[in-house]
Design goal:
There is one protein chain. Helix content is about 60%, strand content about 5%. By secondary structure, the protein is of the alpha+beta class. The protein has 2 domains: about 5-425 and about 575-610, no CATH class; about 445-555, no CATH class. It has a 4-stranded mixed beta sheet with strand order 4-9-11-10. The protein has a 3-stranded antiparallel beta sheet with strand order 2-1-3. The chain starts with a helix and ends with a helix. The relative contact order is 0.14.
Amino acid sequence: MTSSGRARALVAGYCALLTMIIVGPLAGSGYLLLRDAVSTPRSFLTDSALGVGAAAPRAVPQDAVLAVLSPVIDGGILVKAILIVALWSAGYGAAMLARQFASASTGAQLVAATLALWNPYVAERLLQGHWSLLAGYAALPWTALAAARIRTATSRTESGDDAGADSRFGFVASLGGWAALTASFAAAGLTPTGSLLAAVIGLALVGRRAFLPAVALWIVTCAPWLTATALGSGAEPSDPAGVAAFAARAEPWLGTLGSLAGLGGIWNGEAVPASRTTPLALVGTLLLLGIVACGVRAVWALGRDGRALLVIAAVAIVLPALGATSWGLATGEWLVVHVPGAGLLRDTQKYVALAMPAYVLCAAAACRTVTVAARRLLAHDPEASAAHPEIRDDRTGFRPAAILFILLLTLPLADLAWGVGGAVRPVHYPAGWQQVVDHIDAPGDTAVLPAGMFRRFPYSGTAPVLDPAPRILPNDVLQTGELRVRGYAVTGEGNRARTVEQALLEGAPATELAALGVGWILIERTTPGPLGAAEKTLTTAELKYQDKDLALYRVPSPTLLDIATPAQRRTSAAAHLLWAALLLTGLIAAAVRPDRTGARRADRAAAGNRVD
């Protein structure tokens, strides 16, 4: 193996080690069930999974992916595998970004990988259960690499220098770049927010000549959620109360701007590591920003790519901070009321992920800044210079700088380790859930009690979790979509679900529920929540199954209400198939046409100017 191959293997292994330190508990058996994260043994391709049900299509295409694959591979394994691969890809992609853009050698690449993986954003989104958003986060450095490769290759193809040699290279590299960009856009598009994140990075770096084709490519990779939004209820305006509820939050001693600059500030104060509630939040943020600041000048000097990423990072921090001000909240409320789909923007802290590519480049460049400063100091102190020949030797570089930076990045956030202090761990469902699935053998939507979308089961820990029923049951589950966040009641899009829930709480007869399309009623007995007078309703329904955890009732002769037409289902399914085809072909084509020339160029530059 060549020296560059050994270096890449070392970086890849380091990223794998760091990933397993973070999510080690998930290596055990069980399912991820924490706040918004719900994995189940199997899920079904319902209208909701396709994004054409009654609720907004916020979980497409991820729900459809799990529904299609979980009959073959256990759904819990799928979710854990996607999360682990995403985190590893984020770290390794950050290292490759530093190697290609900043000619960083191995030590500096490890610093970049550490910053990408070990930061408050990753910790908070893990605690919030946003495993699929982290897939979009992981795609950002790869999107930047692909876009820059396309721009460079397009320029060479059009210039046609050296009797066509560069032109031919440019054409081949362009094909590989487009394949990589396709894979990056599609992978990020596991969620709508991830797709938007990748679009910002990719379209900013792809260059003027390739801009319109890149826009078209991105739109095609958005087919599942764009189609679902057009066909379903997702085009309805979101509740403006959600803007204030999901605004970025100021962490102790930092303020909103400082929290965001430190890659923190999630709206949910309970989904933060314990260290972020102590003065360590200030210490960690100052250290992070200090490391980044040391490399800003060098990244700016990289040219167009470095400057674009720095500007994006600044905007991604400042705009969410402004969004938390009174006039920012008013603007956000206007947008979600008048602009369809603007509800995607209400959790503004998500978009701080856009700062990551610039941050990792700055951290890698900071290694060289410290190295140069150390050499200048030693040049004026012969005795110290003689005592530390490794600093003076360009062949060895200044490895202590990388080690120091890694320690400074990880120690203030030490509780990110092992599932953020054990909070991110697998759980096991009671056997009754499978019994309920087996007993649902007739059409009709399912109504669930207690009322509300969140649960606190004895087996799921102390944090609230989304009700697993919509993802574990074979029929569509009616949910209101209403959330209670930071004292705000945020209304969802489930109008029929609200009518059904209210009827249950008032004890309406089963015939009234049947007219609303309800064929089943599930009672989750081990979680708190309002039941109202539902016992009256249950006396008019047929008990099909019960145990200490669950009770399932059959509502006779439900009216079958098709929220989605067969044509809508086919259209949505075709959009999902298109997305999957783009993801797979993009990954395969990118693997077949790697950027070997660019890699060799980066290796030569790094070897001549090491920053270990």
